[in-house]
Amino acid sequence: MVSRVLLVGPPGSGKGTQARKLAERRNLxxxxxxxxxxxxxxxxxxxxxxxxSYMDAGDYVPDDLMISFILDALGSQEYFVLDGFPRTAVQxxxxxxxxxQTGRALDIVVQLQVTDSEVITRLTGRRTCPVCHRAYHMSxxxxxxxxxxxxxxxxLVRRTDDSPETVxxxxxxxxQAVDPLxxxxxxxxxxxVVAGQGDPDSxxxxxxxxxxxxx
Length: 215
Ligand code: AMP
Hints:
The chain is built from 8 helices and 7 strands, in the order E-H-E-H-H-H-E-H-E-H-E-E-H-E-H. By secondary structure, it is of the alpha/beta class.
């Protein structure tokens, strides 16, 4: 049974959407590092304060901070989908050690492949309702009336790190760090590559094929 999954991919590859769907389908806990960090920033916690400037600039939060933060959130969960952590080989090694200490290991790592131009289109058009968190895309899934939530009429917001300049920087940061991370999981024999383009349901089906193949 595949019960410990990691999704890797550039920002905007659909990791969050796919991790949420996979967690629902297979009854796994969804652990999204970016979402947890944004919640910490909103709370004004010590971690949030330390992470905010890196996040706003589109840079990675330092490994030591990320590792203690996410390992804490992960705790002794048996069944989970990790989304956005690990992002570096150092984080991957720390995760391996922590899982190993409790007799756990990742069953499968799914790499979502999406081109840079697709990422830029997806992220710069992304908007969310700050009240109900409904997600929109200004060209693919726009609200009925300009930049206002269909459900509650609240003005939609764009993540500060989804501006065109910061998106390009986040992509560069991803490309710089990802090869050693992928190599780490390739060596462990758990890496599967899935095409991330197309509608979310087709991508989910491809992931299911990889996950079921690995169970
Ligand atoms: P995300 O929502 O996954 O795009 O993450 C938003 C931001 O949180 C990233 O651009 C980083 O600044 C930070 N972040 C999330 N996960 C990690 C991680 N594993 N390592 C370093 N920084 C992270």
